[in-house]
Amino acid sequence: MEELGFPDRHHLLAADGWVDLGNAQEAIRDLARISRAGQRHADVLETRWRILAKLSRWPEALVVACDVVAAAPTRASGWIHRSYTLHELRRTGEALECLLPAAAQFPDEPIIPYNLACYACQLGDIAQAKQFLRKAANLRGREAIKQMAQHDSDLAPLTEFLGVL
Fold first, then answer.
1. Residue closest to 38 by CA, chosen among 64, 11, 17
2. Dist CA 27 CA 41 (whole Å)
3. Which tens digits make up the pLDDT trace of 26-66?
4. DSSP 1-56
5. CA-CA distances (angstroms) from residue 160 to 42, 153, 155?
6. For the chain, does the N or the C end have fewer beta carbons within 10 angstroms?
7. Where in the chain is the domain with CATH 1.25.40.10?
């Protein structure tokens, strides 16, 4: 994908900074300053998704996440955002189904099997959840995954399993 030019890049960096500082309204203002052509750039779309997620505006976030996947299908983040958004919309079965192809496409991305473990767990497939969590631990490290999982309510049914992960 082509680099975002000036001054659009400047506005995007400002928006990212505002998101990091927790000020979604200022981030929205900076994104609005980006050119019409720049609005479809994957980097801009990802920042827009981050803003919408921070605001829990999940229906809008889903549209943007789908746009990220379409604009940059070779980026794992769009696939992850789309499924996470579906899960937040209580469409966890779809979240799992949409993220499964990404597991093969991005075999070294640990958040994909981690999120798949969350979705499988919430859908009641504990065996599959354990399998995905093991894969995430193999990619990211057992202690890092244990630490994340201990504080993740989606994985609460796996509390005992975390001790032997």
1. 11
2. 16
3. 999 999 999 999 999 999 999 999 999 999 999 999 999 99
4. -PPP-TTHHHHHHHHHHHHHTT-HHHHHHHHHTS-TTGGGSHHHHHHHHHHHHHTT
5. 40, 14, 10
6. N
7. 74-165
| Overall pTM surpassing 0.90 (yes/no) | yes
| Domain 1-72 sits in CATH 1.25.40 | yes
CA 115 – CA 96 distance, rounded (Å): 8
Q: Is the peptide bond before 7 cis (omega within 30 degrees of 0)?
A: yes
**SS3 of the chain: helix, strand, coil, percent, to 5:** 75, 0, 25
CA 118 to chain centre: 13
CB 7 within 8 A of CB 27: no
Task: Look up tokens 């995954």; give the residue.
Answer: 145
Distance CA 95, CA 83 (A): 4
Q: Which CATH number fits domain 74-165: 1.25.40.10, 3.30.1390.10, 3.40.50.1010, 1.10.1240.10?
A: 1.25.40.10
